[in-house]
Design goal:
The protein is α/β, with parallel strands linked by helices and 575 residues long. The two termini are 43 Å apart. The strands form four sheets. It has a seven-stranded parallel β-sheet with strand order 10-11-12-13-14-15-16, covered by helices on one side. Strands 2-4-7-6-5 form a five-stranded mixed β-sheet, sandwiched between helices. Strands 1-3 form a two-stranded antiparallel ribbon. Strand 14, helix 20 and strand 15 form a beta-alpha-beta unit.
């Protein structure tokens, strides 16, 4: 079995245990194990061969034994025994909005329902109203949710799709009378690379007019459900948006709870219990009393738990609680820290505007230097530059650099293709004449793991290559990218001093956040770049910042947060 198969098994087990009613800690243990295995930079079989399974976060001896069983036998006896009690098909029911583990168990135990098809048939026949706690309204909501699932699916969407939709709606809600605060929550606030539903929160004394506005927005196609504190809708484009409204005095617990992650929230609730308190989205409450302790901001919430404020991108239960206790949370890199964009294209290859327009766009955004890095010759579909055109471009870059004045620099670079055989698209004597050399993979991404890793290593070991762009070549959510041994890539980058890029284009976000953190642990220098093909694309940089923050990156880890003189010294030191 491979990483994906082992992760899927653990994730399915987690859902089955939740349906059975096991403790939240046991469920989370399997869920986190699945997530961590999916995000590994190494082949799980290799980690097992090296006897290092328990070094994977969240993997103790018990789960390590189960991984060993799957890797060596291709099966998991525990899963098979559990499946006799909780049919794996029941997990499918969790895809229906409003159907959680307890309801799935109720449907199965009381009515023998095993899948969405059977649930729909029961609801259409009116039989769900026979269940305890169910009325016609609940039954109709389930039918509406199944209809939405059939029409729109439930695939996660790229952050670049949901972020602008969420913030557009948020800006309108903030302007409504009576709204005292409003924020995007959930995966979007944590800047995860993909998101499910959009979660919006508002603070107001009277939620009714806010819910009324929300339900009748022009983009709303279907109202999935509406109440005094929560309303769910489907937009015309198929995205589900949930809005919750509570009084301002409860804003801190509301925002924290619905920002997540679930694992981070469990840790916060555990800390509260140790202090003799319960914690939910409404308030803290003493275990021995009924009086609410109201929290109107997140800083106060963490202070109540004896912790410094933990920024949303870190809230994944990946050691942030422990780091907070030690006062060792990183000072995360911010958009304002960036002084440059080292990866962008002009009309010389497949960009949409001139070099001068790209430079002016960067300066308008507060940057002080850029690298023009048009594609090399092999990438013909992008009008890649021949050596002759590359040197013609150098003259224009020099002219633009002069026009921009002494406070702004324009460097001449390239985004050079690493060919299928591992050779570079330009010879070394050409590369040494450029200010900055980027190497990347676009073609033959389906090569074997060893072959494509070797291609990337050949670029990393070339002394003229300064940076590797979007290392895996993935495109969210449709193209997973090359099957690289990313651990070897990161190790080699650390040894050679080659910069690894966090590509801020929301279709890429490559490096992934977990690989960013691993790169930082090994001392790799990073860059956050837009890969802009138009000046407006430089506005993507905040997505790259989000990914960097999720990887615990500081400004010191990012080369283009440094002044131009330091950047130039770094590049020259590698020559």
């Amino acid at each position: 079995m491979n990483n994906r198969e082992v992760a899927l098994t653990f994730e399915t087990v987690a859902d089955m245990l939740a349906i059975r009613g096991d403790s939240v800690h046991r469920v989370l243990a399997y869920r986190r194990a699945g997530e961590n295995i999916r995000e590994l930079s190494q082949d799980l079989n290799q980690i097992y061969a090296e006897g290092k399974l328990t070094q994977i976060p969240g993997i103790g001896s018990t789960l390590a034994g189960k991984i060993e069983e799957m890797l060596t036998t291709g099966r998991l006896e525990f899963y098979e025994r559990l499946a006799e009690e909780i049919p794996p098909s029941l997990v499918e029911l969790l895809r229906v909005e409003g159907v959680g583990p307890k309801r799935v168990k109720l449907f199965h135990d009381q009515m023998g329902i095993k899948n969405i098809k059977e649930l729909k048939e029961a609801a259409e026949a009116g039989r769900l109203t026979n269940l305890p706690g169910f009325g016609k309204r609940s039954q109709d909501r389930i039918l509406t949710s199944i209809g939405a699932l059939e029409k729109y699916g439930d695939e996660r969407l790229p952050l670049g799709t949901t972020w602008p939709i969420a913030h557009d709606i948020l800006s309108k809600i903030r302007d409504l009378p009576g709204v005292q605060a409003a924020e995007v929550a959930g995966s979007i606030r944590r800047m995860r690379e993909t998101t499910g539903d959009i979660d919006l929160l508002a603070a107001a004394d009277d939620p009714e007019p806010i819910m009324e506005y929300f339900c009748h927005m022009p983009d709303v196609e279907t109202i999935l459900g509406s109440g005094s504190t929560k309303t769910s809708v489907h937009l015309i484009n198929g995205v589900q948006v949930d809005l919750r409204v509570l009084p301002k005095e409860r804003w801190g617990t509301l925002l924290s709870y619905f920002t997540g992650s679930k694992a981070h929230n469990v840790r916060l609730r555990e800390l509260a219990l140790k202090s003799g308190l319960s914690l939910n989205e409404h308030s803290f409450k003493p275990l021995s009393g009924d009086e609410d302790i109201l929290i109107d901001n997140e800083f106060a919430l963490y202070e109540q738990l004896g912790l410094p404020y933990i920024p949303p991108p870190l809230r994944e239960d990946r050691g942030e609680i422990e780091a907070a206790y030690r006062d060792e949370l990183p000072k995360l890199v911010q958009l304002a820290d960036l002084k440059a964009d080292l990866h962008m294209h002009s009309t010389w290859s497949d960009g949409k505007t001139s070099i001068l327009e790209m430079a002016r766009g960067a300066k308008e955004r507060g940057l002080t230097y850029i690298v023009i890095s048009d594609h090399s010759a092999s990438l013909g579909i992008t009008n890649g530059l021949s050596i002759e055109r590359l040197f013609l471009q150098a003259d224009e870059i020099k002219e633009v650099d002069d026009r921009m004045g002494p406070g702004f620099r324009v460097f001449h670079g390239t985004e050079m293709e690493i060919r299928a055989d591992g050779s570079m698209d330009y010879p070394d004597h050409i590369l040494e004449q450029l200010d900055f050399v980027i190497a990347s993979l676009h073609m033959s991404l389906s090569q074997s793991r060893s072959q494509i890793t070797k291609r990337l290593l050949s670029a990393l070991e070339n002394p003229h290559v300064d940076m590797i762009a979007h290392p895996t070549g993935r495109l969210l959510v449709d193209r997973p990218g090359a099957d690289l041994d990313i651990e070897e890539v990161i190790n080699t980058a650390a040894q050679t001093g080659t910069i690894l890029e966090i590509n801020a284009n929301p279709q890429r976000l490559d490096l992934k956040d977990v690989h960013v953190r691993r790169a930082i642990e090994l001392g790799v220098t990073l860059a956050i770049n837009s890969d802009a093909h138009h000046p407006d694309h430089m506005d993507f940089l905040h997505f790259g910042i989000g990914t960097a923050q999720r990887g615990w990156a500081t400004a010191a880890d990012v080369i283009n947060s440094r002044p131009v003189e330091e950047f130039s010294r770094y590049v020259l030191s590698r020559g």
